[in-house]
Amino acid sequence: MIYFDNSATTKPYPEVLQSYMTVAEKYFGNPSSIHAIGAEAERLLSQSRSVTAQLLRVKPTEIIFTSGGTEGNNLAIKGTAIKHRSRGRHVITTGIEHASVSAAFKQLEMLGFEVTYLSVGKEGIVSVEELKRSLRDDTILVSVMHVNNEMGAIQPIEEIGRLLQQYPKAVFHVDYVQGIGKVPLDFKKAHIDLCTMSGHKFHSVKGTGILYVREGVAIDPILSGGQQEKYYRSGTENLPGIVAMTKALRMTLEKQEETRQKLHRMKEELVSFFSIVPRAAINTPKASAPHILNVSFLGLKPEVLVHALEERGIYVSTKSACSSKAKELSHVLLEMGLGQKAAESAIRISFSNQNTMEEIEQFKVIIQTTISKLYEVTR
Ligand SMILES: Cc1ncc(COP(=O)(O)O)c(C=O)c1O
Fold first, then answer.
1. Which ligand 1 atom lies nearest to the CA of residue 201?
2. What ranges make up the beta strands (E) of 134-291?
3. Both 242 and 260 in a single domain?
4. What is the span of the domain harbouring residue 315?
5. Is the CB of 149 under 6 A from ligand 1?
6. Would you say the pTM of this structure is higher than 0.85?
7. Do 205 and 239 reside in the same domain of the chain?
8. Which of 10, 98, 291 is the best mutation target for the ligand 1 pocket, counting ligand atoms within 8 Å of the beta carbon and taking the most?
9. Active-site residues: which are they?
10. Residues 63-118: tens digit of each pLDDT
11. CB–CB of 240/204 below 8 Å?
């Protein structure tokens, strides 16, 4: 099997699964319980928070454990809008966000907020000038993703953060789900207020995530109840998941540079290969994250190609995993102006550090024969 769908999800590290099992079995107490078993669980939770904060170079009080990217994005966006609605009702995002951001903004629209959607150019990048023109006195939130999940385009987060320093009313949220472990981001230097991460994208178990909430930034909770996670996120903490994710984060960040170089080599190899394959069009911009490559095979239906590759043991995807079953064309490709034809035939290939150059070589041979056959039958 060759698994090239790592932007959809990654395989957990064996050590991470081991940690999960150990904590689930031995430290099953509720961190909120006042007896010794609860206190032991609470100690582990607090240790995980400190290690996570250290790894992300922030304070432990700035870490909120969540169930993943969707929850983190919803909490950041709706939590900010609800908290600061009396300050203003204008919010800004981009036209290429993941559904967990764009759908949250759609809900805000229904609640009477005015949303500005920033456009992207051919390289998939927003213009800081356009953002500057869109900012108003009543803008309370700007949400821009770091690495785009379909294309790999990287947004100018630091530049945006610097600009927003002049607009203290506007909270700055970044969806860092695809970037973490592959494209470094200094939260402090970029003046980020809220930052979403998801464990299963960096070899942790599913149902784990982090929302960074900068000290001094206030949001309202979405889940109300027992007031865990500093009131922001009620519900008994997923301690085995949190400990496992902390381990995955440490392992991921420890080898970040080595991973980045390896991913870059694999991607470059495929870019050179596809650039001479007839009717293949590379959609991913040159300056992009090292683990995502989006390619169109003009005239071929992506789902047909995905299944044909699957028969040969290769797993890639059409667009983002959560919307890949939907029939509409990729909004990201269309927003980038790559055209209907490219959008109708695009697949996403995404790597992790568990892939190898040998897999790339095998993939080249298999995809070449697969597309030749498919073109023959569709002639
Ligand atoms: C950019 C981006 N944001 C958010 C999410 C949602 O994360 P989760 O699957 O953890 O809810 C994803 C998942 O594909 C993503 O790629």
1. 10
2. 139-145, 171-175, 194-198, 209-213, 280-282
3. no
4. 2-9+256-378
5. yes
6. yes
7. yes
8. 98
9. 322
10. 999 999 999 999 999 999 999 999 999 999 999 999 999 999 999 999 999 999 99
11. no
